[in-house]
Amino acid sequence: MHASAWQAALAAAVRDPLELLTLLELPRELAPAASAAAAQFPLRVPRGYLARMEKGNPHDPLLRQILPLSEELRPQRGFVTDPVGDLDAMAATGVLHKYHGRALLVTTGACAVHCRYCFRRHFPYSEAHAGTEHWTAALDYLRADTSIHEVILSGGDPLSLGNGRLHELMTRIGAIDHVRRLRIHTRQPIVLPERVDAELLRCLRNYRLPVVVVVHCNHPNEIDAAVCTALGELRGCIASLLNQSVLLRRVNDDSSTLAGLSETLFRAGVLPYYLHLLDPVAGAGHFAVAEAEARALLGALRARLPGYLVPQLVRERRGAPSKTPLV
Ligand SMILES: *Cc1c(COP(=O)(O)O)cnc(C)c1O
Ligand code: SF4
User: Fold this and answer.
1) Going by CA atoms, what residue is nearest to atom 8 of ligand 2?
2) Span 90-325: which CATH code?
3) Ligand approaching nearest to the C-alpha of 65
4) Domain with CATH 3.20.20.70 in the chain
């Protein structure tokens, strides 16, 4: 089958640490650590996202999100492989049902980018995602529980599915009477704006249910002209376009960066939704921001932005009935 533009861009993503360093004019001395850490969780970054980084700057906030570092290999107390209890919450293959009224579908393990702080970096996707062969069980579960009013497509990144498979899945979910809304959690409009193509937009526009898309963007530099265009097109086809971020040490842990992020998102038609405290996943300890510091940052943000541009600071606690707000 002829690959679409986004599939070609996805296939061309940089996976070799040495190539990454060369393209960004960074010292080759970073390569051994990057390769060692990449052996645990591979490097993966689309070229368009890489182009938004500053050459020669090892502290670039976008680079820091994707460059494997030796810190990842150092065990840290309290940082574990399943930090939010996903494996216990698996209600059926690929279905996470933790909160009332909402069920989350792990549609695929694939992502366009590998974020070093990802809370699912150790998730056993090969056994636990609702791939085509498992959709039947996942859909049976959604159909049987009439309290489920919203289905969340997550992953991995659900937009890693081709338009055909996505359309099929959406149609089957749309046929369930008690489902009122569909939500899509995706980082692809940010890291691979090519993914927002005409066929996807048509599928969203013609869908039976209102669609909410929650993108994932952590820093204003992630939004360039192509991303802005993709977000604008997306917004025109759905009910609501929101953003979630993770609070990350030396990426976005200061109030002017966070304020800039909210302003930039707003200009692109996106409202901030959640700012997550880092989940304590093994390998990501160097991204952690302490809770007291996070609260102070939010206070500073509230003092300089309208309320609707201030995200809710939340953390995920194992067994809690919702995300836990930190106020
Ligand atoms: C975060 C999450 C949701 C969504 O929670 P909202 O507060 O509605 O955004 C739903 N299900 C699971 C399993 C989640 O982790
Ligand atoms: S896009 Fe999301 S799921 Fe994929 S690696 Fe990044 S944080 Fe994890």
Assistant:
1) 118
2) 3.20.20.70
3) 2
4) 90-325
Q: How far apart are CA 251 and CA 249, in angstroms?
A: 5
pLDDT tens string 196-249 = 999 999 999 999 999 999 999 999 999 999 999 999 999 999 999 999 999 999
Q: Are residues 182 and 219 in contact, defined by beta-carbon separation less than 8 angstroms? A: no
Residue 104 Cα: closest atom of ligand 1: 11
Distance CA 290, CA 286 (A): 11
Give me the sheet containing 324-325, strands edge to edge.
90-92, 95-99, 102-106, 150-154, 181-186, 211-216, 240-246, 271-276, 312-315, 324-325
| Dihedral sign of CA atoms 291, 77, 116, 63 in order | positive
- The CA 177 to ligand 2 mean position distance, Å, reads 31
Neighbours of 286 (CB within 10 A): 18
Burial environment of residue 158 by CB neighbours within 10 A (0 to 12, 13 to 18, 19 or more): buried
258 in Cβ contact with 252 (< 8 Å): yes
Q: Find out whether 130 and 138 touch, Cβ atoms under 8 Å.
A: yes
**Integer angstrom CA distances of residue 12 from 50, 102, 161, 286:** 12, 35, 17, 29
How far apart (Å, rounded) are the C-alpha atoms in residues 239 and 43? 34
8 A C-beta contact, residue 95 and residue 105 = yes
| β-pairing verdict for 90-92 and 181-186 | unpaired
Ligand showing the shortest atom-to-Cα distance for residue 86: 1
| pTM (two decimals) | 0.96
pLDDT at 212: 98
- Cβ contacts of 22 within 8 Å, gap of 6 or more: none
Question: Could you tell me if residue 78 is left (phi over 0), alpha (psi between -120 and 50 degrees) or otherwise beta?
Answer: left
